[in-house]
Write a structure and sequence with these properties.
With about 210 residues, this protein is α+β, with helices and mostly antiparallel strands. About 35% of the residues lie in helices and about 30% in strands. It has 2 domains: about 50 residues; about 130 residues, no CATH class.
Length: about 210
């Protein structure tokens, strides 16, 4: 192979890489806004399920468990609902929406992350105004199929209802007031209960206890 052939091959490879990069950038530019809107809608739906009796969910602030961006919210009841006209983000058309007037917090929702066996587990937890857990949900994870992924099952999640932060402790075996670990998946269980949810609830107490008392 001559030096000229090597130059041609190198140039061709560079061209291919550049074209491939441009195509990927174009596809990303087209799809990322769609993915962003879809993720936002899915998160809004998940938040609503955490406290269905609330009229609206308002963002209060953010925090960074395991250096990951997470938010916390107030689940609110409205004094009254006012109809307003806004621009639709998707179509650009004007549409009517309900605006919450004179809202009062009936509880809080916190987003968190727990370090599991093979992934960071993304969770939501709702609490009442006394910071007692009402419900939790697992939004995403990469735990082991057939073991760690049992954290999504109701028999595990339902244990959290009515628990205070002090009771969010994993126990191997039956327990009357703590959280029973999933057999063969103690690390995943602890990541949800003690890392994701408990730390989130304690953060809410630190941030909002004074506000609730006032």
């Amino acid at each position: 192979m001559t030096s000229t052939d090597m130059v041609k091959i190198t140039v061709n490879l560079v061209v291919i890489y550049v074209i491939g990069g441009l195509i990927m950038a174009f596809v990303y530019a087209k799809t990322s806004p769609i993915m962003f809107i879809k993720a936002k809608e899915e998160k809004e739906a998940a938040l609503k399920l955490m406290m269905p009796e609330a009229d609206t969910v308002a963002t209060l602030g953010d925090w960074a468990p395991h250096e990951k961006h997470a938010e916390y919210y107030a689940a609110q009841k409205c004094g009254e609902m006012k109809t307003i006209t806004v621009k639709d983000e998707k179509t650009g058309e004007m549409k009517e929406e309900q605006e919450c007037m004179n809202p009062r917090a009936m509880g809080y929702i916190v987003e968190g992350f727990g370090k599991g066996y093979s992934s960071y587990i993304h969770v939501l937890a709702s609490v009442d105004k006394n910071f007692i857990v009402q419900k939790i949900s697992v939004l995403g994870h990469g735990e082991t199929p057939g073991l760690g992924d049992e954290i999504e099952k109701d028999y595990f999640l339902n244990q959290f209802e009515g628990k205070t932060a002090d009771n969010l402790v994993i126990i191997k075996g039956e327990t009357p007031d703590k959280i029973q670990a999933i057999t063969g998946a103690t690390i995943s269980s602890r990541a949800v209960a003690e890392d994701g949810v408990k730390n989130g609830v304690n953060m809410l107490k630190d941030k909002l206890s004074g506000e609730v008392q006032g």
